[in-house]
Queue: 4 jobs
Job 1
Amino acid sequence: MSVVTGQAWRRWALVAAGTALLCALPAIIAAWPVPASALSASQLRARMLASTTVPYQGYAESNVDLDVPNLPDLGNVGTLLDGTTDQYTWYRSAGQWRADVLTTAGEQDTYQNSSGTYVWTYTSNLLTQIIGSQPVRLPRAADLLPPALALRLLGFAGRATAMYPLPSQRVAGIDAAGLRLVPASQETTISAVDIWADPANGLPVQVEIFSRGSAPPVLVTRFLDLSLGMPSAADVTPDPGPGVGYSTTGLANVSGVLNGFGPPLPARLAGYGRVASPGGLADVAAYGTGFARFAVLPLPERTGIAAIDAASAAGGTIPMANGSAVLVITPLLTVLLASPPGGPVYLLTGAVTASLLERAATQLLDTG
């Protein structure tokens, strides 16, 4: 039988203590007090808006719980708005970035650089170059990255939106300063938006969106790992290896697809003025101010009928004097599909109340 000396015991005790300390270090760092920021709410907002020139690379996780129904011709939008999205990202500038979405089936990488937009899909091992501009497009995973989402929400916030500082918290190793946005309108489903950013450069690192009547946030996106500094040009440039297929595709003529399916949309709807439409889309419109903003677009007959069928399975029919409508309510987004007898199908959606969309649909059907 061997005898362990006191000196050996001390050595092993030191090894065990060191190992325990290393294992506990992340928790200790996370629990360490975060110094308060000296920035005011307006100063932090200004730094966030100016952060588009801040380069970075990192790993972000987004959790969204909206329970949006699967409507036709919306690609993977339902997946983005109901579940967890993990992605690595490299950002040099607004025109040079890359985002890799990781899934159980593989990954999909999106590149944006001076040559255009590229998408590589693991399952098909195909790199596709997308040619043309995108005045209107479906949401994509990169829109959920904290900087992109924060800047979009700050852009929507109207002058009446209240701003308050939040306690600082540590996000991806950064002592981030916090800002809360509270909409003035009672016709939006958003009760508050919380954004944390690096106080030194304004880069948003975490965003939370709260809906009315729900205590936990319905959307949380944050960096889990973040490194400030300029990624290399190679990081945002596709470099297909042997065996990778290549194709090009032009964007569909969105104006031709979406325009012309109904009478001209009015200048005001449900008491709100019309917001200027991008790309000359006369029959696609947005109305409202601040977070109380909603979109209206007429759908082609086949798409409209399929959308109503899908929405009917997730929502409920509501009575309309001059037509029919289906309403789908989620914790954040509200969707209403309305159609007059023999007329087009109108899709109305936004982070707004059901009563607002019902007023808007009634006006459309009465004038259609």
Note: The radius of gyration is 24 Å.
Job 2
Amino acid sequence: MKTIVMLTTLSIVTSLAGADAVAQSSAGSLDTAAINRALGRTGSMQADGLVYKVPAARSDLKVTVGGIPIKAGLALGTWMAFKKEGASSVAHGDLVLLDKEVNPAISALQAGGMEITAIHNHILNETPSVLYVHFWGHGSEAQLAQTLANVLKTTATPAPSAAPADTTAFAGADALQTALGKKGTISNGVLAIAVPRPEKIAMMGVELPPSMGMATSLNFQATDDGRVAGTGDFVMLGAEVNKVAKALRDNGIEICALHSHMIDGSPSLYFMHFWAVGTPEKVGAGLKAGLDLLAK
């Protein structure tokens, strides 16, 4: 009898453990299909296996900076990132907006229970003026994605292109990567390089991987006169801010903005946006001088 009771108890415990394992497995898997359905566009799971990122390039905007027409992937890419957090999910990202689109987009975020964490510029001397709204949300994937779909409807963000991305390297891309000592990826004429920080970074108690906007971002394109243009942002601790700022200015790189993208972030981080135009070697060397001052 004792053997039967022990076996029965063991069976119940095993069943409960199995149920918990199934629940944990379910909680740990993002419902990317629900995200795609709600947004009407697809993204990609990042290399960390934790973040699903959906782009929405503002290819409708014809923006120039200092007379240079910039590609959508250089500085006009709305992005929405999703990460599982327990039984629900979080969403964080960046909306690229014209002035007139800012407040309708904020209202749409609020209507869906989402929050704003920053509103500011990333570049200077651009025509037309462009602003960036950073957002945060917590809920189911379908709920978060539907809210963001409603937000995009308040803007002129175009539907995604069905054409595959052009990964052809532009003149100067190899020289840039050599000067920086970093490799990136090329899509539609833009070289993108991400340099993650070593610390664990969290917002509102939720850990955010580098792929969720927590890595220093360097983007480049060719210019019509044979040079390259670069923009992006350095992600820094307070003690690094002015050291990096001096290194950039000493190398002729413009500083466009200094601010935070987060609320209740840990550690406190600052994001410095830059603009650089020159030969690949000069631009790469200048930005490397800044990268060398960041914690490894």
Note: Residues 1-27 have pLDDT under 50 and may be disordered.
Job 3
Amino acid sequence: MSLLRVEALSRSFGGIHAVRDLSFEVPAGRIYSIIGPNGAGKTTLFNVVTGLLRPSSGRVHFEDRDVTGLAPFRLAALGISRTFQNLQIFFNMSVLDNVMIGRHRHLERGFLPALFRLPQIVRSDGAGRKHATDMLRFVGLGGHLDAAADSLPYGALKRLEIARALACEPKLLLLDEPAAGCNASETREIDALIQKIAAQGVTVILVEHDMRLVMNVSDRILVLDHGQRLAEGSAAEVRRNPAVIEAYLGSQAGGHAA
């Protein structure tokens, strides 16, 4: 069963086609990677799917519901969450509070109940803190709950952002270059975490330039070039595809295949 279905999607900026007539389906419970050269349209595609941009044409379906152009907060309520290529961390807040922000849609709201700290607010806050704590432990940051976010090393900040996205309890998690800027050890931690997330039943769409990570974790890979589909298939199929090797993977593919 397809969790996400994209149909004939296009997005233009002036006369430039960032994404052009693109269609694909993401099966539930899988790790689906999107790769391509710089400027291939990967982040634009993410921004359209997650409601930050409206498509010029085409449709996006989530669980067989047309969600084209819905605002990000409405998509979050349906179960779509994401991280960003550039860190979006609140550095003046604690690690736990950063994740609590990702939990907001599950918390009790209302001006008067919050003002008087009524029992339902106290219970909701307590449950939210417990869930946020569980997410931090899940990503390997359980020992940093009360630490200032700006005290964490870079790789830990990447995992903190993933924990915040998971706090929303998504069915679909989009990760935009989660290993960008990470050293080899940090990349291995991200690799293991992505597989751990998928093992929990969360569908993952991954954009990543680290081909070793992509080839290791992906159930299926879509290759973009100038906003269009160049190839799609398993890691083995993509690795052997001459058009992909020429357009993007190059020596990385040959070395990994050997």
Note: The chain has two domains: 1-79+170-258, 89-169.
Job 4
Amino acid sequence: MTETLCIKPLRCGHCGRELPVMGQLVTFQCPECSRYWVLSGDSIEPVAVFRAAPADANPADAGGANVYLPFWVVDVDGAGLKAQIEEAMRELQSAAQAVIRTGYEGENAKKIPAASEISHLAARIESLGTFKVYVPAFKSLNTYAYLKVGRLLTRIQPSFGLERSDGAGHPVLCALRAEEAIALVDFIFFATLPESTQSNGDLLAKIFLSPARPPRLVEFPFRERGASLVSIIGGFWISGRLVQGVGSLVE
């Protein structure tokens, strides 16, 4: 059987206008009605795009140009995640006790994170109610950017407001689909944990983060400072070299 390759133009599902294609990006903004669309399988779906606004405006951040970097924000139920962590810890403790009772540890011994460390982690997650994981969606020549920047925002769990981004001429430069972002959630969360917990494969193997609702596409503001990008929400900085095409992101 001969397969036929069919090439179709990308058209806005609202007004029918052809959508501009921008390299590796998976999101498009209609030049006619300004609606946003994202690739999903072999079709396109409408997508809401938001911009994060600092909860407490800092006068030092007023004025000047910002760089907006897109992230998929994945909400995870804090109580459910806490329960997973505590159950995993109990299973490890039970396994360790069983080894001790046999009188032989050797290779069968289970390394257990400090109970106080896990209790502190579980309490913090529960106190947040909804735990957010931030998956970077911008283009990068260094995939470490996805881990580093996502880890920093996820660790901080910043407060911010959301503004709908639907103005003409504001394409969101997203190179990662929502389903791909979900596949990275566990890795980014694990990277936020204390080193002693990160190194415990037995514990991490029992933890799986499930989104409480579909991910939201949110652009976060950064300010250029020399060769660095400083997060207006969170206050941390990253190397501008981690982000491909920084110049085209400046507004």
Note: Residues 225 and 240 are 9 Å apart (CA to CA).
